[in-house]
Specification:
Elements: E1 15-19, H1 23-34, E2 38-42, H2 52-61, E3 64-66, H3 72-76, E4 80-83, H4 92-99, E5 104-105, H5 107-111, E6 118-123, H6 128-141, E7 146-150, H7 156-162, E8 168-172, H8 175-179, E9 188-191, H9 199-202, H10 205-213, E10 224-228, H11 232-237, E11 245-250, E12 258-261, E13 264-267, E14 275-278, H12 287-302, H13 307-316, E15 325-330, E16 333-337, H14 344-351, E17 358-362, H15 375-381, E18 382-387, H16 392-399, E19 405-407, H17 411-421, E20 427-430, H18 443-465
Helix pairs in contact: 1-7, 6-12, 6-13, 17-18
């Protein structure tokens, strides 16, 4: 029988329970069926609460379904269990299954034995989506056939099931995915940063960091680990990396293979001439963009990509929506949408991208973070703080007068208030430090509402001018 997370292919005729019929759960069901596994599905939702597409698929395939919760009897009939990233690995039912020697696998553990391509995996509290997308751009510019997915876009199990083959797999991985990654091991693993996030799930920074470090656990001597020299937690944890090649990036030249300074990324690899890349005028020309570019350029340099191709990829790269995205300059005030800044580390990084005079919009649903870490950055950079959502009072108490605070009952009200308070030369920045689920479906919808509210301001301004 497979042990938990063992690097071994599944066998035809085995029985599996897929826990959670979300995006990754759906991909797991289809992948397992393609390998002649007898699949059952267990979900907290009732069958009638699933989408019509999922209902029809389960019925068409004759898949047994347990709804409204998870039972030991249903799970005990399986040879192994596949869990979605959103399901905590320490649920009592899963602990019971392990005691019965029924393996519990995440999607990465399930996929690992089937991965034959070069794998570059990216994790970190902030920036992983941008860096994964940038890696895809740089590798494509270098003539490589690339798949970019994992925590974004197409699940890895869907990629494997479809039979497509590429030169390089670029995977963005969350701490939730890495918790149950089994023996998954990338050829190049990139850890961008670690700051408090998802503590409501992990319980402590130590457990959260341990989940991130699973990226490197099964690497071999020829594999590469890339970490940020500027991030204290990354540097602290780097001492654990003893059996692979370790590379660093950041603003510190000592022991760093990628150094960023004043919009220039310089790569220094042993036995090779130093190569420099300018980000001036690109969408990566910011404090955060510089660090992200260092990590990505270092990774593709280790894969042998040429300078001309890398430069072309950097110039053509476009940031995804809601990631420190410039919306408009209106009445000499710049509006930026960083709705993806759902934790304190991301907010601090966003604030560092500007010299000051910021009107900051923050708040949402609390994820168990310590907002006191925002106090000093806000004192230094923020002229006015506008708070909304469930965490508004907690943030206000934590910053303890670091900036004047106003409150808003909606995003539209917050934007209108920001516009009335902003002066020429100011920056109005949406960087919530919280999840969106108290007022919005996701960070994307929150960002869209912010952008629309800003554009409505433009219309009002134009009407007044006419």
């Amino acid at each position: 029988m497979m042990e938990t997370g063992e690097y071994r292919k599944i066998e035809s005729g085995q029985r599996a329970v897929v826990m959670g019929m979300g995006v990754s759960g759906r991909a797991a069901v289809k992948f397992l069926l393609s390998h002649n596994v007898e699949v059952s599905v267990s979900d907290n939702r009732q069958f009638t609460d699933l989408s019509r597409v999922d209902q029809d698929y389960l019925q068409e395939k004759g898949i047994a379904f347990e709804g409204g919760g998870h039972s030991e009897e249903f799970f005990s009939r399986s040879d192994f269990i596949v869990i979605s990233p959103g399901i905590p690995t320490d649920l009592p039912l899963l602990v019971t299954m392990r005691r019965k020697n029924i393996p519990v696998l995440g999607e990465l553990a399930l996929a690992a034995p089937y991965l034959t391509e070069c794998v570059v995996a990216v994790t970190g509290t902030n920036g992983k989506t941008t860096v994964a997308a940038l890696l895809g751009e740089l590798l494509s510019a270098s003539g490589k056939k690339v798949f970019v997915g994992g925590n974004i876009g197409t699940p890895i199990l869907d990629y494997l099931r479809r039979g497509e083959r590429v030169d390089v797999l670029v995977l963005e991985l969350s701490s939730f995915q890495l918790e149950s990654a089994g023996n998954f091991s990338p050829h190049i693993g990139v850890l961008l940063n670690i700051s408090p996030d998802h503590l409501d799930r992990h319980g402590s920074m130590a457990r959260y960091a341990a989940a991130k470090m699973k990226l490197f656990t099964h690497q071999k001597a020829s594999d590469k680990a890339i970490l940020c020299a500027d991030d204290p937690m990354c540097q602290q944890l780097s001492s654990q990396l003893t059996h692979q090649e370790v590379y660093c990036f950041g603003s510190r030249e000592r022991n760093s293979s990628a150094i960023g300074h004043q919009s220039i990324v310089t790569i220094r690899l042993l036995g090779q001439e130093a190569e420099s890349y300018s980000l001036a005028g690109s969408e990566l020309d910011s404090h955060t963009g510089l660090l992200n570019a260092e990590a990505a350029v270092l990774a593709v340099s280790l894969l042998g990509c040429r300078k001309d191709d890398i430069e072309r990829g950097l110039k053509g790269f476009k940031l995804a929506a809601h990631r420190l995205q410039h919306v408009i300059n209106l009445a000499e005030v710049d509006y930026y949408d960083d709705s993806k800044a759902t934790n304190t580390g991301a907010v601090i990084s966003a604030l560092e991208s500007f010299s000051g005079n910021i009107v900051l919009l923050a708040g949402g649903r609390d994820k168990g973070e310590d907002y006191t870490v925002l106090k000093e950055p806000i004192r230094q950079k923020v002229r006015r703080l506008i708070l909304l959502g469930e965490a508004a009072d907690a943030i206000a108490a934590a910053i303890d007068g670091a900036a004047p605070v106003s409150y808003a009952g909606s995003m539209e009200e917050a934007v209108s208030l920001a516009a009335s308070l902003a002066r020429p030369g100011d920056v109005v920045l949406l960087a919530p430090a919280c999840s969106s689920f108290d007022m919005f479906d996701n960070y994307g919808q929150r960002g869209d509402v912010f952008v629309q509210a800003v554009m409505n301001l433009q219309e009002v301004t134009a009407e007044k001018a006419s």
